[in-house]
Amino acid sequence: MAIVETFGHAMIQAFLEDSELHYLRDRDGDFVVEFGYDEEVLGHPRFMLVASGDDHEQYCLRGDTMKRVPRLDWDRQLRLCNEWNAQYKLPKVYLEIDDPNASSTGKVVCEQWINLEAGVHQELINQMTSTFFSACFGFWRWLERQDALLALGDDPEADAEPDNLPDDV
Known about the structure:
Helix 1 (9-18) packs across helix 3 (122-151). Strands 1, 2, 3, 4, 5, 6 and 7 form a 7-stranded antiparallel beta sheet that branches. Residues 159-166 have low confidence and may be disordered. This protein is an alpha+beta fold. 34% of the residues lie in helices and 22% in strands. The chain has a single domain (9-158), classed as Yope Regulator, Chain: A, CATH 3.30.1460. The protein has helices at residues 9-18, 74-87, 122-151, 156-159; strands spanning 24-25, 31-34, 46-52, 58-64, 69-70, 92-96, 105-115.
């Protein structure tokens, strides 16, 4: 039977080592896992695994593909993020923009926060982290399919634009 323990950096590190994933640590002791270029997602997947909060009781998982989204594509990316979030519970996705008035690019971020103040066992940390990684890759593949549909001229969003509605509407 698994033993419930206080959550912290050691549990994240145990997951990474058990999974044989290479990682870096920042000055706060949090973890960065970077994957090489992935043809399916057309990017370099990167994950930050953070023990946050006063007592490190919050587990924050963030992922991105290090791709920048130009300002011209922000509206479409926001609609796609909203569509994903309406259909799926994991991961939460959003367009992150440093300064909407001055930035010329943004990035799409996957994120999950989990309050582990009551404690957790290692197996659950392993399962939650693996599931988050898998869900992020699923989102990134879905996002690339949406871009492929747009390139083929089969973008459902374009069909809903007011300029494309029949005259009798």
